[in-house]
Design a protein that fits this description.
Layout: H1 3-18, H2 23-39, H3 46-57, H4 62-77, H5 84-96, E1 109-111, E2 114-116, H6 126-131, H7 137-141, E3 154-162, E4 165-172, E5 185-189, E6 195-198, E7 204-207, E8 213-221, E9 225-230, E10 237-243, E11 246-253, E12 256-263, E13 266-272, H8 275-282
Parallel strand pairs: 4-9
Antiparallel strand pairs: 1-2, 3-4, 5-6, 6-7, 7-8, 8-13, 10-11, 11-12, 12-13
């Protein structure tokens, strides 16, 4: 094992946990030194490639994440199979930051006051995920077995179950450092002439004439359990209701409401600050209109 690489990784892990104000600069210095070790031929064992990959995974550019993917693949090829998950996660990060669907689904994006799984390539099977040590899509949607989040303390705070699905509120002990905010483009107006924006995943949201967020909505593949992933100190509350003669669940936390319900064999989540707005939007999602 390359001892210097191991020391650099331990330093990287401390910075990730403590987030010093000069973290980006420190990351850059570490990556430059890892490049030097690679060019000097100091990386020969699978575990060394894995350590180098982890450092690049915590970088801040597409090149960093793709290099992390390549290094983790090399570690796996050399017999260090613990690196398989990192090869998959690094590839997902590289894709998601370009606004493209994740291949495996092991990433999180902030949207509507919670963290969401990005859209996932439907061609990827759970069998392929297993080959790369990634959980099934249903487990990922439930926040079970996500790789790369082991250092984050999490707990199910509260949950609600209705016929068809369950919502589990999961709290992270800090905001995630490497999650992108996907940019939106104008795609229409709602009934009150407010602007609707859409990102590359088809997730939509409404803003007022000052550009402030009003509400957002997205659909998820059906799964029996869905995680509502939050940060912050406020205690969430859950309410079971009916929507279009089917059971639905409301989550209230950090000043936002989210309405979960089944429609067209998908689970929809509509989030916002005003319940009437949310109900109105819920009645239109999945229909070929402006929403």
């Amino acid at each position: 094992m390359n001892i210097e690489l191991r020391r650099l990784l331990e330093e990287d892990q401390r910075d990730l946990k403590n987030t010093p104000v000069n973290r980006v600069e420190r990351d850059m210095l570490r990556k430059n030194r890892v490049r030097g070790i690679l060019s000097e031929g100091g990386v020969t064992e699978g575990i060394d490639f894995f350590h180098a990959a982890l450092i690049f995974q915590h970088g801040d550019s597409l090149n960093d994440w793709f290099q992390a993917h390549e290094l983790a693949k090399k570690a796996s090829e050399l017999g260090y199979f613990e690196a398989r998950w990192l090869a998959a996660v690094a590839l997902d990060r590289w894709l998601v930051w370009q606004g493209r669907p994740a291949k495996y689904g092991n990433q999180l994006i902030p949207f509507g006051g919670t963290y969401r799984l990005p859209c996932v390539d439907p061609a990827t099977t759970d069998e392929e995920r297993k080959k790369w040590d990634i959980a099934t899509l249903a487990d990922l949607l439930a926040f079970h077995g996500l790789r790369g989040f082991a250092s984050i303390e999490k707990e199910n705070i509260v949950s609600a179950t209705v016929e068809g699905f369950q919502i589990n509120v999961v709290r992270l002990n800090r905001h995630l450092v490497h999650s992108p905010n996907l940019e939106g483009v104008h795609c229409g107006f709602d009934d009150e002439n407010r602007t609707i924006l859409e990102n590359s995943y088809g997730w939509r949201w409404v803003i007022d004439n000052m550009g402030d967020f009003i509400a957002c909505w997205l659909s998820m593949p059906y799964a029996p359990k869905i995680a509502h992933i939050i940060t912050g100190e406020e205690s969430p509350t859950l309410e079971i209701t009916e929507y279009q003669n089917l059971p639905a669940i409301w989550v209230k936390c950090n000043g936002l409401l989210t309405h979960y319900f089944l429609k067209q064999e998908e689970i929809w989540a509509v989030s916002g600050r005003d319940r009437n707005d949310i109900v109105k939007i819920s009645g239109k999602v999945g229909v070929h209109t402006g929403t």
